[in-house]
Amino acid sequence: MHFVVFVNGLLLLGMGGLMGLTGLAYSGTRGVFLEAALLSAFVGGLLCIASSARRGHLHRLHSFVLTSSAWVTAAAAGALPLWLWHMTATDAFFEAMSGITTTGSTVMIGLDTTEPGILIWRAILQWLGGIGFIVVGIALLPIMRVGGMQLFRTESSEHGEKEFASAARFALATIWVYAGLTVSCTLVYTFGGMTGFEAIVHAMTTVSTGGYSTSDASFGHFQSGYLQWSGTLFMLAGALPFSWYIRLLHRRRVRSEQVQWLVSMLVVVILILTAWHVLANGSPVLETLRLVAFNVVSVVTTTGYATTDYTTWEPFVTVAFLSLTAVGGCTGSTAGGAKMMRWIICVRSFASEIKRIRFPSGIVTVKYDGKPIDWGVQSGVMTFLVLYCSTIFWIAMALDFYGLDLSTAISGALTAVANVGPGIGDIIGPAGNFSSLPDGAKWVLSFGMYAGRLEILTVYVLLFPKFWGAMA
Amino acid sequence: MHFVVFVNGLLLLGMGGLMGLTGLAYSGTRGVFLEAALLSAFVGGLLCIASSARRGHLHRLHSFVLTSSAWVTAAAAGALPLWLWHMTATDAFFEAMSGITTTGSTVMIGLDTTEPGILIWRAILQWLGGIGFIVVGIALLPIMRVGGMQLFRTESSEHGEKEFASAARFALATIWVYAGLTVSCTLVYTFGGMTGFEAIVHAMTTVSTGGYSTSDASFGHFQSGYLQWSGTLFMLAGALPFSWYIRLLHRRRVRSEQVQWLVSMLVVVILILTAWHVLANGSPVLETLRLVAFNVVSVVTTTGYATTDYTTWEPFVTVAFLSLTAVGGCTGSTAGGAKMMRWIICVRSFASEIKRIRFPSGIVTVKYDGKPIDWGVQSGVMTFLVLYCSTIFWIAMALDFYGLDLSTAISGALTAVANVGPGIGDIIGPAGNFSSLPDGAKWVLSFGMYAGRLEILTVYVLLFPKFWGAMA
Ligand SMILES: [K+]
Ligand SMILES: [K+]
């Protein structure tokens, strides 16, 4: 466990450094950030020193504690400058957790006139959360066997020094791709008329599918077709598997069922909703296509930007958006949600049930990316989906308990657990804000974002005493 | 397939006979019922004659067509007198489908002054639907392998004449138990002060966990502690596995995890909600206990009687009731919902996932009633639960499309698919009524009750052309 403490210490040191840089760069909030930087670095340093004496062996089960603790540590550190600035502890923690989980639900009003230091810090949190989750999704979750993720285990991922080295190379390549996408996105946004500051903030929150913006009007602040189409493209880029990019760069076999399904689904849904809205309202075709494409991609990739309050459209559209909230992007990307991989396996499980009914004595296999999957993966995926639904349900119940109406409670639980950002309704809809919610509801939602980001089981597993026993 | 047509013909003949008896017994609606009886018997007779020439072989897959068609036929025949009486076709079909699926959602207002012939007919529909579902659940679903029901397959249930004979004996025993419970319930209700008519109607709709009443105030019309406690007991009796009663009568081993879990869960939930309501409102303990016990048992057994509008209690209580709506009773009973058996296997699948995480190379088995279950059962159960949730979701979407608010849409979909009866909200809550819904919504809900009653897959499977190919 010393290793876990050490990594958390390093994390605090690193975030302290970033706070320091933010403080130096933006004079308006300099004091706040420098104070937070010192505090964070001090605690981080202490943790590193305390744990560095003996590193010990990294048990496979330590990955659960490592991942779970890292996101809490990062949220707490991320909240520090916001709290010192002037937010309440609850609001600061909610905002930071929403950032580091790339959810993007905000309790802040008046973003257009907020200190740039604060705005860039929110973007940095999302950018860090995004790359952190990609690395965890590629390197740790397959070993942890969470929700069927062992499907992506390479034969070598569990043993040996050589494989750690190759994993490190892979992680480095991922970071390069991520950084490359962010820089490209910044350039494209600047070219479209954003200021340099706006471009950097939005690039960081686009590629991480986070969704924090510099304006209360979210991406809708930029009434440019070019910018909105670019945003659509880069949100999608953030939701594709990063290992797929690396294979693409190495000119390896690039077939990925997740990518195929995600893109096909987006095309179909966008065409249907566009046709619907055009026929129902007689709105101009191309503008509607742009609006629908942007907002559908935003919800499905779990970015959560909005360019229009689509909940004021036909009821059908509202419900369509609500149902898209649970879908999510691809595994090994920055996106949240249940992930395409799991829906593919779910649909095939259903097909295999039908087949089993037709041929009771036959052997039915479920395939993924052309290879048959073992039933541990299938069981992991189905358990995940049931657990996912029940988590959304009990979080909705808890929110209802704090007096939220059913519509707000359900869409709030959904948007938090799926790390999307906006919900449905007057309060937390695309045109709304989470600031007016009671404190208790904010803590419940923070937990929802946290559990959702770490694929539920990573967190739930820690509640079992037997788990701690097995690790000792 | 001739056999399927023949059984539907017999069903129409039998229901025609019951309509005839109802017509003879109640003079106020005599013309209506005698006309419906002739129509039903005429069509039934034609079907029997047309199909009796060659009986053919009953393919295992024919069970799906048999079950699915029987419930539509029964609903259509059941709607006939209601339609001839004065209801619209939509309302009559909704009311009859709600009856034959033992859901109990009603579009009728002014029950207290409604013709007794109509009231008894609604009760007869529920009583028939209840015993029909028990027989299907014990005899057919295990062979059909729907949603993990193959767990209850006996080694002999798929082959041979002798086994058909033993199945017939078993079905007969079940009918005796059902009739015995109904008669006992009638006597107990009469003893508590109901008129003979009220007692018969309520006994038929209690034991079938249907929930139709003779009063708009539902069971709340009877302000008697004795009657309400009796109702609680007999609703529970209807939701226990009928094979368990038969084993009990034969003094065989009577351990059943479903019964244990159901009763334990009820005790815990009732105690918590009673304590909550007493502490929050200072209401009298014993009266609260009675109210809570009745309404919790009513929702969990999917009966759907109400003695109070619990949605006017604390928000926590409303949400607790909403979440109880999905639980359901035991398999092989009249109850709807997802059934305890599936929740037990779901919880154990979750536990096995945790175990798999701890011991990745170990073999993890899931047990039920002390015996390890094969993974086809587990996969069937998990697929069922995911399918169940998605069915509720798309039905809620469809209802939303007809302009219902989200709360009404979601609780309406839930209550229909789980065959409970009342939803949440002003319109369809325990104190409300389904009559004001648009016709489209009534058809959607009718489909939801139908799919829910037949355990979803029985109906969905018919949508696959390959299924029809395999049967030919
Ligand atoms: K987001
Ligand atoms: K019912």
Automatic annotation (TrEMBL), chains A, B:
One of its GO terms (cellular component) is plasma membrane. InterPro entries: Cat_transpt, TrkH. It comes from the Bacteria. The chain crosses the membrane at residues 5-26, 32-52, 64-85, 124-146, 167-189, 226-247, 259-279, 316-338, 381-399, 443-463. Keywords: Cell inner membrane, Cell membrane, Ion transport, Membrane, Metal-binding, Potassium, Potassium transport, Transmembrane, Transmembrane helix, Transport. The keyword Transport applies. It is found in: Cell inner membrane; Cell membrane. GO terms for molecular function: metal ion binding; potassium:chloride symporter activity. It is a multi-pass membrane protein. The keyword Metal-binding applies. K(+) binds at residues 102-103, 210, 302-303, 419-420. Belongs to the TrkH potassium transport family. Low-affinity potassium transport system. Interacts with Trk system potassium uptake protein TrkA. This is Trk system potassium uptake protein. It comes from Tropicimonas isoalkanivorans.
